[in-house]
Prior knowledge:
The chain is of the alpha+beta class. The chain has 11 helices and 10 strands. The strands form 2 sheets. Strands 1, 2, 3, 4, 5, 6, 7 and 8 form an 8-stranded mixed β-sheet that branches. Strands 9-10 form a two-stranded antiparallel ribbon. A hairpin with a 2-residue loop joins strand 4 and strand 5. It is globular.
Amino acid sequence: MTDAHRALARRAADCLTPDWLEKQRTGPGGHIRKETWRELADRGLMGVSHPTEHGGQGLGLLGALVLGEAIARVQDGGLSLGMHVQNEIAGDWLISAGNAELRDRFLPGLIAGELVACQCDTDPSAGEPTVAVTDDDSVVITGRKKFVVNGATADLCFVSVQLDGQPAIVLVEKSAPGVSVTEVYDKFGTRSIDSAQIAFDGVRVTPDRVISRRGISQLMRWNRVMSRMRFLIAADASFVHRALLDHIRAHTTRRELGGRPLAGWPVNSHALARARADQELMEAGLAEAYLRLTEGGSTVPEIAELKWFCVERATELAGLCTDLEGGAGYMWDSTSLRAHAQARGFRMSGGSQTTMLTVANHSMACRAELDAPAIAATPGRRRG
Length: 384
C-alpha cells in the first residue's frame, strides 16, 4: 500500500455508502443512473489500475482491490461488477489492443465517466452463437447477448463473436444501426447495476474495431482479462463473507436461547468456527492469486478454483445467517438476506460456478496427462 493507495481508500470511503447509493438509483431497488459514472470519475474512482501514460492512476491490481473493498460497504455487489467491467475489462481491451487511435478515442471517455462499457459474452445457447463475417470493407455482426452487465446504459459494447469461424472481440458502439436493447432484466441481487439483453442485427463496423482475434494471442488476452475479473469477484465474495461473519458473531453473542447465547450452542459455535477458517483460507488464496497475477505464472485454473470457493462459502454463510437471525432473517431488510442476494449474483458473474469447476477439472486432467510420462520414467515405477 502506497500513499496513493491510501488516498484512494479515503476518497472511496468518503463517497461509497448505502445512503449515497440509494440517491444514485433510478428508483427504489433500481440500477444507478448514467450520470453516476461521471460522479464516480469526479471523485477519482475511475481508471485506478490503468497506467498513468494512458490517463489512469497507475495503482494496478492492488488499486482495484482497494476500490473493491470500499465498494463492498454499499451492500450491493452490482456496483462492484459494473466497475470491474468498466475499469478492468473494457480498459484492458483498449490498452492491450495496440490500436492507438481506438485507445485515444475511447479510453479517456471511460476514465472520465462520459462513456460506459459492457462486455457481451453470453449467447442464448450453444446453437445460437453471435457470428461476424467479413464483407468487403466491413465486419457484419449478427446475434444476441444475454445477461450483459451495464448493458442498458452502456455506450460501448465489447462483443465476443465467431469471426469467419474464429473467436474474436469486436468493439461496437451502442448507437450503431442494428444495435438494440431488447430486455432489461428484473433480477435477484446486484441490482445497483443493470443487466440486459442486447441484439445485433446485421451491425456493420470497420475492420479496425476487431480488437482481438484468433490464435494464441487472443486466448492469452482473454485469459488475462477473465482471470482479473474472476479474482476481483472472489475478493468481492470474501468482503461479503467477512462482513457477514462480523454481523452474525455479534448477533449470536447478544441473542440468547435456553438461557445462553446462540453462539454458545455447539452446533452454532462449530459452524462459526468453520466460517472463520473459511475466511482465513479466502484471504490466503487471494494473497497467492494476487502474486500469480502480478508476478506471472499459471493463473486460469487456480483463480477459477478461488472464485468458486469464495463465492460458494459466502453463499453458504449467508444461508446460515438467515437461519440464525430467525424470522428476521427472511425479511428483505435483513443484513443476511441482502448478502445472500449479492452472493447469488456473484455466482453467475465472470462465469458460473459450474464453469469454474469445469475449468478446474480440465486443468487437473491436463496436468495428469503431462505428469504421466515423467511418472512412467521414474525408476521403480511400472506403467499401469
